[in-house]
């Protein structure tokens, strides 16, 4: 492998407790450990500061939100500069009174904020009552230049939408990170393997269709009515899973990626070249009713 083209990703898969400061300290420890193992771009899980609070609609949970920039980004910016790593930090953002977002901050290796992405697709399902808390994002789908490559970020429910991945790739992303909080209720335990397989397959398809590296970073463990299935993974632009974390335990996943793979795969599978942008106008419609 050409060392010049190699980038090392760090995926931080963790459990969460009620103590926000302890959660932050545990994440910082994992970031330091990942950096010591060579990680250059390190991604935390969705809403990493707290337990996944969207299982119920509780106005008191808005107190968990913070501004960006704010105390957490300040702490992580200092850490990124010290370790010379890129950190992707998913946070509960308070943008203004009454406007809150599920947001990921990309912090460059010099400690500056490279950019933010606000979650666009907001679910509303049993134990995933996110529409109560989060305003849909207005950042659009984009990527951010960092010291170690161009990074795109989408968040959890976004991972099921090919349009989001395509537009992020078209912005120049070499990596698409999906910080995630996905799991199952006891009533769905028998469907776990099917659900997890579908979750992995859709993200692998984004890598193949766009010729990019994809990294999914899930949480793990039991929280309330949900059991999070972990299995954080990285796949290459061919859709091959190059590393996967455990389904039950915290883990720092360290994965080497060769940027040369992007060009090689796109030369052999020129999907971006052969797109017919003149034929896709109906994509802006919710549904093309055949009886209308």
Walk me through this protein's architecture.
This protein is an alpha+beta fold and 292 residues long. It has one domain (3-284): Carbon-nitrogen hydrolase (Nitrilase/N-carbamoyl-D-aminoacid amidohydrolase), CATH 3.60.110.10. The protein contains 5 helices and 17 strands. It has helices spanning 20-36, 71-83, 162-170, 192-210, 260-268; strands spanning 6-13, 41-43, 86-96, 99-107, 113-118, 124-125, 128-129, 143-146, 149-153, 175-179, 183-184, 213-217, 220-223, 226-229, 233-235, 241-244, 251-258. α1 packs parallel to α2 (71-83) and α3 (162-170) runs parallel beside α4. The mean pLDDT is 96.
Question: Would you tell me the structural class of the helices and strands?
Answer: alpha+beta
Mean pLDDT: 96
**SSE run:** EHEHEEEEEEEHEEHEEEEEEH
- Count of discrete domains: 1
**Overall body shape:** globular
The total strand number stands at 17
Predict the CATH topology: Nitrilase/N-carbamoyl-D-aminoacid amidohydrolase
Helix content: 10-25%
Q: Biggest sheet, in brief?
A: 6 strands, mixed
Distance between the termini: 55 Å
Count helical runs. 5
Enumerate the spans where pLDDT stays under 50 for 5 or more consecutive residues.
none
- CA-atom Rg in angstroms: 18 Å
Q: What is the CATH C level class, in words?
A: Alpha Beta
CATH architecture assignment? 4-Layer Sandwich
Could you give the order of strands across the largest sheet?
Answer: 5-4-3-2-1-17
Beta-strand residue fraction: 25-35%
Task: Give the CATH superfamily.
Answer: Carbon-nitrogen hydrolase
């Amino acid at each position: 492998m050409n060392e010049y083209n190699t980038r090392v990703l760090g995926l931080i898969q963790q459990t969460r407790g009620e103590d926000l400061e302890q959660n932050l300290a545990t994440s910082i420890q994992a970031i330091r450990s990942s950096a010591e193992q060579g990680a250059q771009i390190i991604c935390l899980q969705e809403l990493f500061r707290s337990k996944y609070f969207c299982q119920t609609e509780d106005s008191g949970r808005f107190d968990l939100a913070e501004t960006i920039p704010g105390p957490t980004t300040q702490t992580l910016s200092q850490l990124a500069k010290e370790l010379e790593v890129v950190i992707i930090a998913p946070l509960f953002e308070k943008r203004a009174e009454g406007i809150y977002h599920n947001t990921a901050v990309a912090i460059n290796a010099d400690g500056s904020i490279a950019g933010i992405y606000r979650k666009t697709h907001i679910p509303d399902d049993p134990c995933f009552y996110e529409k109560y808390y989060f305003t849909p994002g207005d950042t659009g789908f984009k990527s951010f230049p960092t010291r170690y490559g161009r990074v795109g970020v989408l968040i959890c429910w976004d991972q099921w939408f090919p349009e989001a991945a395509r537009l992020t790739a078209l912005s120049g992303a070499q990596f698409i990170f999906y910080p995630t909080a996905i799991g199952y209720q006891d009533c769905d335990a028998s469907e776990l393997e099917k659900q997890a397989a579908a979750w992995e397959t859709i993200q692998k398809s984004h890598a193949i269709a766009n010729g990019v590296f994809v990294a999914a970073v899930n949480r793990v463990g039991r929280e309330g009515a949900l059991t999070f299935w972990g299995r954080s993974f990285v796949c290459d632009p061919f859709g091959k899973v190059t590393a996967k974390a455990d389904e039950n335990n915290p883990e720092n996943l360290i994965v080497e990626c060769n940027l040369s793979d992007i060009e090689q795969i796109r030369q052999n599978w020129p999907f971006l070249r052969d797109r017919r942008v003149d034929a896709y106008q109906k994509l802006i419609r919710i549904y093309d009713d055949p009886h209308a």
